[in-house]
Amino acid sequence: MPDTSSRLRELRVEAEAAIAGAGSSAELEGLRVRYLGRKAELTTMLRSIGELPPEQRGPVGKGGNEVKRALESLLERRTSELEASELDEALRTDRIDVTLPGDPPQLLGHLHLITETRREIEDVFLGLGFSVAEGPEIEYDYYNFTALNHPPDHPARMLQDTFYVSDEVLLRTHTSPMQVRAMEEQEPPIYIIVPGRVYRRDSDATHTPMFHQIEGLAMDEDITLGDLQGVLLEFARAIFGAEREIRLRPHYFPFTEPSVEVDVSCFKCGGSGYLGDGSNCNLCKGSGWIEILGSGMVDPNVLGFVEDDGYDPERVQGFAFGMGIERIAMLRHGVPDLRMFFDNDLRFLEQFGS
Amino acid sequence: MRIPLNWLRSYVDPGLSAAEVAERLDMTGTEVERIERLGVGSTDKFVVGRVLKAERHPDADRLSVCQVDDGSGHPRTIVCGAPNVATGQTVAVALPGAVMPDGTPLGEASLRGVSSSGMILAEDELGIGEDHGGIMVLPDDLPAGAPLQEHLPITDEVLELEITPNRPDCLAVYGIARELHAATGTALAEDPTESDAQSTGGDRVEDHAAVEVADPEICLRFTARVFEDVKVGPSPAWLRQRLAAAGQRAISNVVDITNYVMLTCGQPLHAFDLDEVRGRRIVVRRAAPGERMVTLDDVERTFDCDAVLVCDAEGPSGIAGIMGGQISEVSDLTTRVLMEAATWVGPNILRSSKRLGLRTEASARFEKQLHPELAMAGQRLAAKLMIELCGARMVPGTIDAYPALARPRVIDLRVERLEGLLGQAIDAGEITQILRRLGFAVEARAPAVLGVPVPYWRDVDVQREADLIEEVARIHGLERLPITLPSRRRAVGRLTHGQRLRRRLEDSLRDRGAHEIVSWSFISPEALDRLRVGDMPSLRIENPLSEDGSVMRPLLLPGLLDAARHNAAHGAAALALFESAHVYRPGESLEAPEGSPRGRTPADERHHLGALLTEAAPGTWRRERVPADFFAAKALAGAVLGAAGLEHAVEPATLPFLHPGRSASVRLAGGAEAGWVGELHPLVAQAWDLEAAAAFELDADALAGEAAAVTVFEDLTSYPSVLQDIAVVSPAEVSAAQLEAAVRRGGGDLLHSARVFDVYAGEQVGAGNRSLALRLEFRAADRTLTDEEVARSRHAIEAALAEIGGRLRA
After folding, report:
1. Number of Cβ pairs closer than 8 Å across A and B?
2. Domains plus CATH for chain B?
3. From the CA of A48, how many Å to the nearest CA of chain B?
4. Which is more confident, B562 or A59?
5. Which ipTM did the prediction report?
């Protein structure tokens, strides 16, 4: 019995030393067969335990199994160590040139700056409770002029040089025709904005024959010029910054009365007219204000055209406004030339609307 | 409109700088575009001088050496090149050190050996006029040495105003003076047209001339006065300076008077040489069709019957309200003048001036409809000046053809209504004060109602209560308005289904690498020819800026091609572009109905989404570049349709601008046509200098019409599906879509999907055949399928394939 116990200890010491010294997983496999295989001394010893005297069977069985478990665990640990280093070795030879270019990323395109700006303005007015209405660009003279209080041969028509498709059909010169279309279609109250392309027969450094506008119309029983100021102040702050102020200047549009032009305080000089270095602000030309849109209270003559649709000028009143999308975008993004919007040069397109 | 400040200040002088005046006008509705400085910057060193002696320069025939008294007691020597300088003249002198209008300081100079210390000035050298014919000769009673600016407006500022078409009264210096008076409250000088001149003599105007208005509908008023003993000559310096500052050239005193009156009060006048008026008779009538005459600008013009002519006994002598004729033009020899001040019908003048392509200072005023009262106002001011400046005698009486007397309009203004529109109460006292300052008389009518007669010069613009409210609001100050938000009765704002969908589709293209462009809605007709669809129905613009932009595009493709070419020319040959915009086709009719079209549209406009690709995937060091082809475009179109949640099918189609074998139409599951996809016809690509490209165009309106606004829940199936791959050999002319349709027909309800994943053509399947590999997915919502069920379905599929000549490949 002392023989068996000491043999177990010897075996363990011998096997542990052999496993620790193994240099490859093949060698380890040999050691596993040698010390734990079916014909191994330890295996034989444990298998023949029944042949021992009863008082020895317990200690030998216990000690033998302990050695077996210890060797198994050691083999496993050693195997994964060796495999890891062998893998490392193999990977070390699997080399690529990491400085070569990667695959091109999935390219993202861009929305046009006009679309980006239009959506942003739309979202501001959606938040203020306005819906978005759209209408035809090829329009009847009736909606573009007559019903907007521009009678035939009225000098106000000279304000907008017009493309004609026929005597009575033209390319709309503003998004305002939708005012009348919308009122014909829907009883008050009405709160809409109308984005879209408009056309004027004009082409120079600051005019293109096609550009984009956003019209606004709010009609209800008690809308005031003060409300117009409030709505446009919210708009100006959302688009040009929370610090902005607006001011209304009296003006003339045939389809609003009173009519006003709206200026926003300059966001470059903060409205002071001067830049940090004391020079005149080049954005607002030193005035502190930048004109952004035209607006006013809807003219009773316009309502006269939709009186039967529920717009009695004695009971319903409201405001309308119109702004150029390109102008807003130029101011906000510092685009120097209107014509860039229509050149569709990738170097321009890629800068916005991702 | 140019408003010289010196002139304006002669009527109202609030003691403000030009910038401050501009600010007050701006904030009360008269837009000042810019302020221009005229004349000299500093009036220092500009004095009145007297020429004590003028002698010819010893070495230069055209120069004079002058001794000039500058008030210092020591005559100074000035060399002068003007032909008209002479001993004894009183002149304007710049002393050394004076800064000339262009900024150069005047120094001492030696001219051909004679030193000159100073300069005797001509009008243009002071920047106050255009005359460079000679030096200015001033009245003799001015003391030598007196500061020049006390006697001559040698410095001035001009406000350049943008006058809106509703305010013809502001196309006049006194009109602006009224505005400035209202804006500042500073006292306003008497209206210069208020008082009349004194006529003399025992004759009557009717003894000299007659006026006949043939058609009272074309002339609201025609007044005429006659002046005799007229001495035509140059106008005095003050008048010349005012005209020059206002941008009018001085011509002769008579003509200058007509211009001056127009610039002062807004009424254009016309002066006839009465002796050249044949028959001493003026006839106002419509032009006969094709009638001709030569206008003052030396152009022969032909009229239609809408134009109104002012004629003498024998023929036309001027176009009413637009331009006079040469025939009775005032000249140096004129001694008798007939002065016309008329009131024309605005729309008629606008129409005629547009048709003739002739817009003048006069027509720009008449077209906005002047008031008949203004005609006599103009006559009064002109008469005073004719007597004062031309030494004329005014013949007693005025010929006045004024068939329908214009009575002043009276408008009721409800104080409550004003508050309701502005959102701010202004009390009746303040309203009254503001309106009076603007020239409106105001009388209390009923409690809180004011009766407001409109002064004649505001008649065209102020016709309703709302117009009066605007007057009050702008003078009261818009900056004092409250800032409020509407008390809402409808509070939800949202995009429509179609608008949301369009954003989604645009985003899906953007997220797949396409750049959005915005191109012109109008194209060249030749672009349609290059697309080989020259006969495509389209709308033409009657008055395009150029032929290149004369057709409203019936499809987006040409804009995409133009943009592709532009970028290719700048080295960006590989691109994906898209546009989201309207296209235009003729509608039923271009004629408008009587009255409102009630929502109808004159053209057939659709919102399209178009894309153009020249590359499907870029080449890299480990992958070949994939040029754009049909399938790349189809995939992108499919992504868009997928984003809309729409099932669709493509079928071969022939479009003239696409490769005939590589083009297809897109049809939605519901059957609606949605657009096309294909590779460009090589000739089209070539016409735009592109190597090859694929494109598609989808009708976003059609997509929105079919796409579900609300998606309905489909039960999740938890039973496993059975996947099987089959290879089908069929004649090559059987399309994949036909094959797939047969598979679906045979597969019935159990076949959930069938997808082509490989195509093979070659020896193994026989000539004229090809083999398509499909992955079939069978499943049922309520059970696990048995092998037997799947096998039955497979048999049915085989049978259906056999009907179209297909068989499973062994």
Report:
1. 290
2. 2-32+158-184 (3.30.56.10), 46-153 (2.40.50.140), 205-401 (3.50.40.10), 410-480 (3.30.56.10), 497-586+603-706 (3.30.930.10), 722-808 (3.30.70.380)
3. 54
4. B562
5. 0.89
